[in-house]
Amino acid sequence: MNNFQCIAVDMGAASIRIMTGTVTDGKLSVHEASRFHNGTRQMEGHERWDIEYIIKEINKAVSGILAHENKSISSIGVDSWGVDFALLDKDGNLLDIPVAYRDSRTKTMQEKWTKIMPVEETFRKTGINFYDFNTLFQLLSIRDLEIIRRTAHILFLPCYVSYRLSGIMFNELTISSTSQILDVHGKKMNEEILRHLNLRPEHFGNILMPGTMAGNVKNGYILPSEVKMVAVCCHDTAGAVMAVPSERENYAFISTGTWCLAGMVSNSPVINTFALENGFTNERGFNNSFRILKNIIGLWLVQGLQSSFNNKYNYEEIAGFLENTKTDTLIFPDHELFYNPDNMKEAFDEFCRITSQALPATPGEYFKIAYDSLCCSFRDNMDKLENMLNTDIDIIHLIGGGIRSEYLCRQTANISRRKIIAGPVECSAIGNVLAQAIALKVINNAEEGRGLVRNSFDIVEYLPEEDFRGEYERKYKLYKGLAGG
User: Fold this and answer.
1) pLDDT single digits (tens) 229-270
2) Structure confidence at residue 365 as a pLDDT band (50, 70, 90)
3) How confident is the model at residue 2 (pLDDT cuts 50, 70, 90)?
4) Quick one: average pLDDT of 426-442?
5) Which of 142, 205, 243, 375 has the maximal Cβ count within 10 Å?
6) Are residues 248 and 230 part of one domain?
7) Which of 209, 234, 259 lies at the terminal end of a domain, its last residue?
C-alpha cells in the first residue's frame, strides 16, 4: 500500500487531539485535524471526565475528516492516559460517568489492599508498582457498591471511546497493564486479584495485542464499514515509546507531558525489591516488550503554577523566565504535596517551609524551580535504572510535548550528564499511526516504524555543557538531599 492514511485519536489529560496520519514513499506524517481542551469536573461528588462531551467532540472531528477523506481513510485507533475506565451494563450502556484517577476515593485504598494481599505478592503477580491512582485501588473503592453488581463490562477509557465509535468491545494489552490487575506475563487479568474485587475475567473481555484488528465496524455507528478499528497501543506512553527514533532495541526514554515517565525498554520485567522500593513499574509495550519506568509528577507542576497565577503567563513568557532567573531552591516532585493541590504555588511554599529553603520571590522563580527539579528527578531515576538493569545509559530520548521547551532539553543534558535526543513532539500520535500501519501490513514491524520516524521528523541533540559542570553537580547534590538520597 503506497499511500496509507488513517485517523489517530490521541487523548491527553489536558487536551485531546484528532490527527490524520499518512505513510507514503517511506515517509510518515501526522496532521492535527482538531484539538480541544480536556479536564476533570466535579460531578455527583467525584472528580470525573466529561465523557459525553469528549465523545461528541471526537465524533465531530472524525465526521469532518471522513467527509473529506472517506475513500482514503483505511483505519482508526484511540490512545489515552492509563488506569481510568468505564462501567457498562449487559446491553453496553454506560452506568456511571467515569471517575478520574486524581479523585480522592482511592486515598485509603492502598492500606486496605495490603490487608488483603501483601505488597510484595501483588508486585510479583502484576509487575506494577503502588500508586494511589491505579485501577486496582479505584475498583477496590467501589467493590461493594450496587453499581459493581450491575456491571457486565469494564472498558479502559480509550477502548470505551473506540467502542462508541465502532460498536466493537475490546480491551488492549498496554492499557490493561496500567491497572495493576493484569498478570505480569501473558494477557489475562489475574483471577485471584479479581476475586477480591468481586469481578471475573469476563468483565474485561478479550484483551487484544497492540497492532491487531479489533473487528468489523457495526452498523449504526459513525465509522463506515470500510474503515478498520485497530487496537493500537491504547496507552499513550506505550505508543510514544514505540515511536522513539532509536536504532537500538533497548533504549532509555523520558516521555514529557502532564506526567513524565522515565524508563527503558526491556525484554523482561524487573520485579525485585529495589524496583518495588524505588517506585519502578513494569508496563507492557509493543511486541511483548516491557517498559521499566518511573511515573514522575511532570508538567502538572507547571500547569498548576499557571493556574495559581490566574493563567497570566504562557509558555513563551515562562521560557523567558527560565533563561533570566536564578534560584537555589528546589522541590521533590514525588512529594504528596504536589499530587493534586488546591493551589500549586502554595504547595511550593509549603515544601520550602518544611525543608527550610528560601521561598520563591517571583513567578519566574517558581517556574525555574519546577523545571530544574524535574531535570534533577530525571537524572536520579536514570541513575537508578542503570543500577537496577546493570547497564550504561549514555543516551536519553526525550519525547512528548515538554520538548517544546528548549530549556528543559538543555537542562536535562546538563544535569543528567548524558546526551539528549529530543523529538518528535507528537510521539503518542505517531505510535498510534505506526500500530495501525503494522495491523494493515503497510509496514512490517516496530523496527521499520522507528526507521520511518528517523526519516520523517526533525530531532535535536543536546550535550552537557562542561564549563558549568560544578554548578549542575551542586544543584543535583541539593536535590538528592531533599529526596532523601
Assistant:
1) 999 999 999 999 999 999 988 899 999 998 999 999 999 999
2) very high
3) low
4) 97
5) 243
6) no
7) 234
Q: Verify that 408 and 309 share a domain, yes or no.
A: yes
* Same-domain status, 383 and 468: yes
3-state SS of the chain?
Answer: CCEEEEEEEEECCCEEEEEEEEEECCEEEEEEEEEEECCEEEECCEEEECHHHHHHHHHHHHHHHHHHHCCCEEEEEEEECCCCEEEECCCCCECCCCECCCCHHHCCHHHHHHCCCCHHHHHHHHCCCCCCCCHHHHHHHCCCCHHHHHCCEEEEHHHHHHHHHHCCCCEEHHHHHCCCCECCCCCCECHHHHHHCCCCHHHCCCEECCCEEEECCCCCCCCCCCCEEEECCCEHHHHHHHCCCCCCCCCEEEEECCEEEEEEEECCCCCCHHHHHCCEEEEECHHHCEEEEEEEECCHHHHHHHHHCCCCCCHHHHHHHHHHCCCCCCCCCCCHHHCCCCCHHHHHHHHHHHCCCCCCCCHHHHHHHHHHHHHHHHHHHHHHHHHHHCCCCCEEEEECHHHHCHHHHHHHHHHHCCEEEECCCCHHHHHHHHHHHHHCCCCCCHHHHHHHHHHHCCCEEECCCHHHHHHHHHHHHHHHHHHCC
Please check whether residues 230 and 249 belong to one and the same domain: no
Quote the CA–CA distance of 161 and 145 in Å, as a whole number: 25
**Residue 485 predicted with pLDDT over 80:** no
Name the pTM for this structure.
0.93
Q: CATH no. for residue 317?
A: 3.30.420.40
In a domain, 433, yes or no: no
- Indicate if 128 and 261 belong to the same structural domain: no
Q: Write the CA distances from 58 to 31, 284, 426, 432, integer angstroms.
A: 15, 27, 18, 16
Confidence of residue 484 (pLDDT cuts 50, 70, 90): confident
Q: What per-residue confidence (pLDDT) applies to 70?
A: 62
Q: Is the domain of 249 the same as that of 230?
A: no
Q: Is there a single domain that holds both residue 198 and residue 324?
A: no
Is the domain of 258 the same as that of 219?
Answer: no
* Residue that terminates a domain, selected from 234, 263, 285: 234
The residue range of the domain holding 411 is 244-423+444-485
Closest CA to 240 of 56, 430, 76: 430
Q: Which residues are catalytically annotated?
A: 236
Characterize the bridge pairing of strands 395-399 and 419-422.
Answer: parallel
Residue at 438 is within a domain? no
Residue 180 placed within a domain:
yes
Number of domains forming the structure of the chain: 2
